[in-house]
């Protein structure tokens, strides 16, 4: 019980923070596994389809629901986008997102809207493929995974063409769209002409649309710029961004394009962009606004409660620290990190009996570390 | 045998090209697997180490050797960098690269060079870890994989610090380095001071060094800028690039930083940057120069021989097409695409017997497609 006499307050806190950093377990196989592969039967397409699924970190242990990203050309894009989502989430740039990759059976047939001169065996099956996505795949995903309604559709080249097509054909099915180097020159710029007429009649429904082309010549670049021009003229609630990525080719645009697209859709999500949000209630307010934008309750990340609680503990603002932890508990009642902070707070305020209770709770929850054992031993002595 | 009467020349070629595009088989499980995980025994560190390995597309079937990238903090970076290499290679921005990810056992201990005030149980084991990398891991990789000597070392934060440390401690072990937001403020800017003295005495040995910081405050940004200043002053053969990535934080810098670093190391590799290389001998000359830079024979990609051969076939320059295919054969004697082009060329020049021979060879090599069966049937009739 003579802990306090021996160690400086701040040093204890640093040790405790170090101990809590060890809480994050990590699975070895997660290093090399990007997702799971399923085969599902499509009645609409009358064939089997391969679907690749990536679940965000913590999905298995958690209860929350996730935004869903539907990704075309999964055989080329899935592994990269899954790893990218992982990275962007870990860096706090986006929330955890469930990724659904659709592997091609017949790419030319499925990703192209029907045109007058198409041989229907080889091109123009876009409508049927969209029906598969919305009437079979989306229900399958909802049934098998914890999802909430905000969904993204993303594609490249023919996949980008299909993405643009969907924004007008069934705009309410996805809330955000990423179209990279879309093949909008196809069928005499069919989709560009459609957009011109469509937006005369209809206000855009999606929340966000991101479109990019690389440093590439030809019809794709030209037609996409025309399309962007039409969308940029819309004075509605639509969030639209068009970019030319000078360092990318038609092929390599999927690398930086998905990064830019995701950052655009989730603009405002990363708190580091807002150094003025230096109180927990300002952060909660910010997330309330984001929640309104995305149409569901977006929770303040645990890390924020931890950060603010620790700050108060360092400056010995015990009451405010307790208030932050009570807010933390409201949103994350079962959190191990919360138990750890409660233990630390009680230790620092001299309530050793309570502190011991929470440290032992940590132990019983499977947390093991040298500093934890040492503290429990000292508190028992 | 009345094929020519029925179809226009160009249309045949397009069908053949379409058939050959189908040659590229792709394994379903490759969509969701990023690599293999090994456990190896380190005598130097007296512990087991986890090593994650990604092999580039075509590795299993091929004979060629590959550049090797050694990546620190594999538990956070491996999946992303493996997928990124895949993408950059497919887009023609870099050659196929073998990725070796080193999973941490004790990150603080291994990635920090020894400093005066370090508790050696927790910090400062950098030299021993470097010995493990160069005396145990590199030989293991050479023994188990087809490698050639050009190697890259890449790391972030503490991993970036270790990377910078290695450029001076054993500069000849890796030919290129990527250090992202390196923790150069550590131990009173120990490595920055060392660099200042070191480059007074020594010319830099590595071929390329890429360093970046994000839009981040604190010691890391300040000390890294000082370090960059020292390296930028070197008037030697060193290729050095320093960037501040404004849209990245200390955490998210690994996303764009690895892209920029790899593009810098392999600057000149993507032929799209050189539209003036419009003859096969110019391309071969360009690759000869790249080969000199990288210190080993860098082969003209198969796709280039295919592209130029097809161009000549479209313009009916048969002799030149034959010459290109003979060059192609010199470098890729067992290529299936080469057999396919030989078949097409013989078909187009009317040597149906030879054409049939090569189409049947394709068949016996396991290539199956509707158009291939149709052509074989027509040639036999």
TrEMBL record, chains A, B:
Stretch forming the signal peptide: none
Origin superkingdom: Bacteria
InterPro entries referenced in this protein's UniProt entry, alphabetically: AB_hydrolase_fold (IPR029058), Esterase-like (IPR000801), Mycobacterial_A85_antigen (IPR050583), TPR-like_helical_dom_sf (IPR011990)
Pfam families: Esterase
Protein name: Alpha/beta hydrolase
Lineage: Bacteria, Pseudomonadati, Bacteroidota, Flavobacteriia, Flavobacteriales
């Amino acid at each position: 019980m003579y802990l306090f006499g021996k160690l400086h307050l701040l040093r204890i806190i640093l040790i405790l923070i170090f101990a809590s950093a060890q809480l994050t377990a990590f699975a070895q196989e997660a290093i090399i596994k990007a997702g799971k592969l399923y085969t599902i039967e499509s009645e609409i397409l009358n064939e089997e389809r391969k679907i690749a699924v990536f679940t965000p970190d913590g999905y298995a242990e958690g209860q929350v629901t996730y935004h869903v990203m539907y990704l075309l050309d999964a055989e080329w894009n899935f592994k990269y986008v899954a790893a990218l989502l992982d990275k962007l989430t870990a860096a706090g740039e986006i929330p955890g997102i469930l990724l659904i990759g659709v592997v091609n059976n017949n790419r030319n047939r499925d990703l192209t809207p029907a045109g007058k001169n198409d041989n229907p065996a080889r091109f123009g099956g876009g409508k049927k493929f969209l029906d598969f996505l919305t009437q079979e795949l989306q229900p399958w995903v909802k049934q098998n995974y914890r999802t909430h309604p905000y969904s993204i559709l993303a594609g490249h080249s023919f996949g980008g063409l299909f993405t643009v097509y969907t924004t007008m054909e069934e705009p309410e099915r996805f809330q955000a769209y990423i179209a990279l180097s879309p093949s909008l020159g196809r069928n005499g710029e069919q989709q560009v002409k459609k957009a011109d007429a469509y937006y005369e009649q209809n206000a855009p429904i999606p929340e966000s649309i991101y479109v990019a082309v690389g440093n590439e010549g030809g019809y794709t670049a030209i037609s996409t710029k025309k399309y962007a021009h039409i969308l940029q003229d819309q004075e509605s609630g639509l969030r639209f961004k068009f970019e030319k990525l000078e360092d990318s080719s038609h092929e390599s645009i999927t690398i930086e394009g998905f990064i830019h697209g995701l950052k655009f859709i989730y603009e405002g999500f990363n708190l580091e962009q807002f150094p003025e949000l230096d109180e927990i209630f300002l952060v909660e307010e910010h997330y309330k606004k984001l929640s309104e934008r995305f149409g569901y309750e977006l929770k303040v990340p645990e890390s924020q409660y931890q950060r603010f609680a620790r700050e108060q503990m360092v400056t010995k603002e015990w009451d405010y620290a307790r208030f932050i932890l009570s807010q933390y508990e409201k949103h994350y009642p079962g959190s191990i990190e919360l138990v750890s902070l409660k233990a630390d707070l009680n230790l620092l305020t001299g309530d050793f009996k309570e502190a011991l209770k929470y440290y032992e709770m940590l132990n019983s929850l499977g947390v093991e570390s040298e500093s934890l054992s040492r503290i429990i031993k000292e508190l028992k002595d």
